[in-house]
Known about the structure:
The protein has about 400 residues and is α/β, with parallel strands linked by helices. The protein has one domain (about 10-35, about 40-403): Spore Coat Polysaccharide Biosynthesis Protein SpsA, Chain A, CATH 3.90.550. It has helices at about 1-30, 75-80, 105-110, 130-140, 160-170, 190-210, 235-245, 265-285, 300-325, 330-355, 360-385, 395-400; strands spanning about 60-65, 90-95, 120-125, 145-150, 155, 175-185, 220, 250-260. The chain has an eight-stranded mixed beta sheet, sandwiched between helices. Helix 2 runs parallel beside helix 3 and helix 9 (about 300-325) packs across helix 10. It is globular, with a radius of gyration of 23 Å.
Amino acid sequence: MQTTTLITLLTLACLVLVVYHHVGYPWLLARWPKRTPPAHGVLTRRGYVARLGDRQLPAVTVIVPAHDEETLIAEKVRNLAALDYPPSRLKVVIACDGCHDATAARARAAHAEPECRHLDLEVLEFAVNRGKVAVLNETIASARGELIALSDVSALVSIDALLRAASAFADPQMGVVAGGYRLLAPGSVGESAYWDYQLRIKRGEAALGAPLGTHGAFYLFRRRLFTPLAPDTINDDFLLPMSIVADGYRAIYDTEIMALELERADPALDRCRRRRIAAGNLQQAWRLRRLLHPRHRGIAFAFASGKALRAVMPFLLLATLAGSLWLAPQSLPFALLAAAQLLVYAVALWRQLNPRARVPGVVNTLHYLVGGHVAGLVGGVRYLVGLDRGHWRRATLTEETSR
């Protein structure tokens, strides 16, 4: 009897946490009063015309880590050259991390184009692929200017992004400005729905005090607040900005700043990405556990309800299913709960085995959600047994499907 009671309580506790994370927490965020970040009087519109206010704008260094990005690097350079920001206050660093292709050459060729020549651009070539974290630590340490912007090669940034960010950084307590993220061509209906969901979640979390993490495609922070990342860091776009927030500085999520993702992820690569994010979720939940302190108020609530729970969610789901199956022979409610879970997983598996079948949108959403948790379970286990060490390089379909 004691064993049954204990399993019942544990199963119910896991079920409550699962439902709260997926339904209760988003419901609370959707109803939390939204706040509009105040304007600080810094120039936000310029129209590419030099103005006296240009001298008041902070100097920005945009760092773009790259590994074998020859197909996209030219468009990235052109995009950065089109940003509406005084050339004298902007520097761009393309950090080629052990590239084996023509990334550096094509970046320099694009810079030589008439519309890009005004850009203060430096192409760094590191002979050995050391990983993204090593590249960031070195390039940020040697950067000049008050602000650092990090951006992916595959993401095009809205032309007024730096002006909008400069307005927010007029507040001396502002440490991080995060931008929005959109996919040009989602790999699936489920992926599109997922990123729409993430946009709503980040808006809600920002209303509680700060967005939890940033989209690595584009975000900015004060250079003096940077602390070198540990070499094994996995999700640098979470640990870096949230370490600044944990130190007491503000962060905002400006949805008018937008990064547009050009690459369309293959499903296999998407699963690999989600496995890696899951491993990073466990890592950051532990390394940033100080964010759970009550002094962080809304941020602590969001961190516990969002990132911390997400890190352990695959294990909670597994425990809920195992407990339900154990209790099913002696309890009709748990038998129904077990049947419902098995049905959801069966539908997701069927969709996985029949990718070309025409199905209702809810089936695609379930498939993507379950697939994410499966990837999360694999990623979490890989991290716990020490298989993910944070080394970064560009993935290819051949590499990822062979793992």
